[in-house]
Amino acid sequence: MPRSYFIGRIRTPWDSRLLTPRQGRADGPVCHIEIFEPWVAALEDVAQFARLEVLYWLHLSRRDLVRQSPANDGAARGTFSLRSPVRPNPIGTQIVELVSIEGNMHSVRGMDCLDGTPLIDIKPDRTLFSPIAPPQPGDFQTS
Ligand code: SAM
């Protein structure tokens, strides 16, 4: 199996976690997603999608908290009940509006990560796709 690796880097105006939005907004600033070779050619046909799902690695996060209190209100909650960046594998996901693609650079609105955050993947927004057929009972059984 090939090892996992980052395919690009996200450029945003934010260099402080405290100043970074907790969730991106469609009216947020234009941010830039830089794609590394050999994946630039994989941008072909992406421009037809108005919305993209971006997956990124929240690289400065702690990864050791099973319960946490992100609001610092004294109420600890289970990590998997939260969208906190503090998680065992700190993957962030966001639906963004595509502004333009030029060369190896996407311009988008709606990001909520620090400048320099590593990029894992880009996909068309899943709500733009219909299932081929409605799921049937037993479809998701594995054994
Ligand atoms: N939209 C994503 C999600 O729901 O999966 C991420 C949401 S997370 C609450 C966004 C917060 O993570 C930001 O407000 C900032 O505090 C923090 N953050 C952003 N980029 C980060 C990075 N590269 N490393 C660690 N923390 C980061």
UniProtKB/TrEMBL annotation:
GO terms assigned for molecular function: methyltransferase activity
Every TsaA-like domain range: 4-134
UniProt cross-references to InterPro entries, sorted A to Z: TrmO-like_N, YaeB-like, YaeB-like_sf, YaeB_N_sf
Nucleus in keyword set: no
Keywords in alphabetical order: Methyltransferase, S-adenosyl-L-methionine, Transferase
GO BP of this protein: methylation
A Pfam family per the record: TrmO_N
Keyword S-adenosyl-L-methionine: yes
SUPFAM superfamilies: YaeB-like
Family according to the record: Belongs to the tRNA methyltransferase O family.
Name the UniProt record assigns to this protein: VirR
